[in-house]
Amino acid sequence: MKIRPLSNNHSRCNASPAYRLVRSGAATILVLILLVITGCALGARYTTGRLPDTAVLESSLRIGESTEKDVRAVLGEPYGFGRYLPPADNTPREMLAYFYEAGNLNESTQQTMLYVLLLDGRYDGYLWFTSTLKAQR
Predict the structure, then answer these.
(1) Which segments of 7-121 are extended strands (E)?
(2) Is 91 left (phi over 0), alpha (psi -120 to 50) or beta?
(3) Which of 108, 101, 107 is closest to 40 using CA atoms?
(4) What CA–CA distances, in Å, run from 29 to 26, 33, 42?
C-alpha cells in the first residue's frame, strides 16, 4: 500500500488571492473593533475648536471702536459666522461664532460657545455660553 501526499490545494500557502484577502480583511476588522471597544472602555478624550479667552475680549477690544479685523487678531479665525437680531432692538448684528468642546466618550462633555457681535463692522459685544460653570441661585 502506497501513501500519497495530500494535495497542496488546501494549504494556506497556495490559497487563492481572494481567500487571503477575506482572511486579512476579517483580521483587520477584528482589530478595529477591539480598538474601538478599548477606546470606549478607557474613555478616550477628544477636543474640538479652541477655548476662547473672554478676558482678552474685555481687555483688548472696545465697543464701537474695534473692527472685525481686530476681533480676528485677538481670537483667531471663527468657527462660523451669521447674523443675530437682539430681542430688544430691531437692528441686526453680524456674528462671529467660536466653539470649543472637550470630553470623554463615556462621560461628561464641556462645551463653550462664544458669539461676537458686530454692528456696522465694529465690535458691539458678545454672548458667551458654557457648560463648565455651576448655576448660581
Answers:
(1) 45-49, 80-84, 93-104, 109-119
(2) beta
(3) 107
(4) 5, 6, 20
Q: Tell me the residue type at 42.
A: L
| More reliable by pLDDT, 64 or 18 | 64
More confident residue, 40 or 83: 83
Predicted local distance difference test score (pLDDT) of residue 4: 61
Residue 14 shares a structural domain with residue 58: no
Phi, psi of 10 (to 5 degrees): -100, 0
* 39 neighbors 105 (Cβ within 8 angstroms): yes
The answer to whether residues 89 and 116 belong to one domain is yes
Residues 84 and 100 in one domain: yes
Give the CB-side neighbour count of residue 26, counting CA atoms within 13 A: 6
